Structures are given as C-alpha cells and as structure tokens.
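Need fresh eyes. Consider my entry:
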Amino acid sequence: MYKAFYHFNKNPFQLAPDSHFLYASVKHTKALTYIEYGLNENLGFMVLSGEVGSGKTITIHFLAKQLSEKFKAALILNTNVDVDQLLYMILREYGLETVNKDKANLIETLNVFLVKNYSEGKRVVLIIDEAQNLSLKALEEVRMLSNLQSGSHQLLQIMLVGQPELLSMLKKPELRQLNQRVAVHYHLTALDKEETELYIKHRLKIAGASINLFTPAAADKIYEFSGGIPRLINLICQAALVYGFADEAKRISQDIIQQIKDDNLTIGIDSEPEALSGQSKNVQKLSGDSSLEARVHSLEKEIVNLKKDLSDHTKNLEPEADETESPQAGQLKQELAQERNRNARLIQEYKLLKQKYDKLLRN
C-alpha cells in the first residue's frame, strides 16, 4: 500500500523495536553513555527508566547489538512471571539446561556458567525489560543473583529497565538493599520540538524515503499531539501515511495531521502535553480499537454511496454524449472514463486498507 506509493524499502514508523531505527537524540545518547560506563567499570546495578513509549526498549536492543565479544548478554522481555519462572527464563536465555532441576541446582548451574565465563575473560550481563511488572519478591531474588561472586570479583551485571513505577518500587523499604546497589540510573524524557522533526526525518531516511515527506508544519503538529513521545509519534505518522496514500498526497501536511486528531483514529488527547520540564508528559493512552472499526465502517459506507451516485450520474449523461458529435461531448466521455477508473482504483485501495485494519483489529 503506502510503502510502494512513498517508495519505502521498509516501514519507517513500525512499533516493533528495531535498533536500526534508533534516533540518537541527546537524551538517548546520554543514556547509552551512562550504561556503557557502568558496564565497562563493572559497577553494580544499572537502571534505565522512562515513560511509556519513550524509547527504552529500542535503546537496550541497540546496546545489546553494540556490545563487544567480551560481553555475554541475556535480555528478558516477559516479566509477568513468578520468581521460579524468572530464574528458568534467565538460564534459558543463556542457553543453559533447565530440565528437572530445583531452585538450588538452577542457581548452581548459573554460578558455574558465570565462573566459566569469568575465567575466559568474558563479562555476563542480564538485562530485564519491563521490570516494573516484577513482584517485590522477584526483584529481591534478582538482587540475590548479584551476590554470585568469585573472590572479590562480581560475576553478573544486572540492568533493570522500566517505567517510572519501577523507581517507586525501588524506594520501598523491602528493596532498600537493591536500591543501595544502583550505581547508574538514567531517566529518558520526551523529545523536544526540534528533536521530533529530526526523529521523523531520521526514520524516513533509514526507510529509504525523502526526509522532506512531512512538512515542517506537519512535524510541529505531530509534536503538539504526541508530546514528543516516540511511540505516539510513530502511531501518528503511520496514520498520516495511510491518509496521505488514500488522498494520493505527495507530502504529508499539517491538515492531514489535524484530520487524524479530529477523527481520533490513532490517539486520544484530553489535554495538551505539558511544556518540557523533565516531568512526565500528560499524554493520554492510545484509543481503543472500537473507534478505528467505526471509522473503517463509516468510510466503507461512504465509498459505496459514492460509487452508486457516480454510476447513476454517468448513466444519465452518456446518452446525451452519444447523440452529439461536438468536441465537448468527446471531452465529457473522456472525463467520465477517467472518473470510472479513479473510482475503481479507490475501491481497490480501500479493500487493501480494510484488510490491513481487519488484521490489526484481530490482533
């Protein structure tokens, strides 16, 4: 659909984290610098926090790919698990055997693995994403894993990644020992207005498209409606490309972005985002699928009615055109044929769009 129309080699605003698309804003660069410092200095726990959609996951995916061969990293993404399940997941991520072993044996297996890597000059890193979903008991278990040592050498470095709720959890009395071990912490905040435009251009460039596809005014609107949150920027831009494709627009204008907000297709906004101040942005969560489905059905009904009106109109005009041989009649025939072709193309494009939306709704 719009991928071919806008000459993309890949979707520039996909929601799945792809480290190739990481935009190295000042904030994300600082985050990577802090984390790399903690890793190279073999410090204690590291924490990367940020609002929903601020770019935490794509940052750690980028980091994991950039680690040298002396590091052996495991990335845990599913944290809706209990303590024992978490331990199993950690061992599996390191490729260790986990069949028919109790907790003591699992920890011993992990310890042997850590000692072996240390003897080979390798550093083992454990990265836990969405750590705010872990229970206090699970977080305490993670702290205990950091006690695995060889003499005075720490064998396992641990990085916790999560939403601001994680910071609140770490301040609880039950986790004071873990909190005291946090040597590096960085909190990702939203992009500013200039960074938002650069972010859009960066992703367009990676996708092989013109970086000027979105007008500056459109980028300003996107910042206004997203508050500079990368995930919301992606959602708005995806919707804008669908709208632009349907309208055969060569560039995405501020009017298209405004239409997305007016239709409430992608995000719902009850209030304007706060000015950048280091605090959380007041951006409402994504709207539900019901508004999207209603929009699709409304468009479908509108197109069917337009098709019927066009058919009736052309039937009434064609006999008149056949009875005259004037140049105006020939021009009318040509315009009617062009309108039929355009209508047929619109119906086909709509069918493709509806298939994609139906698939999204099912997922």
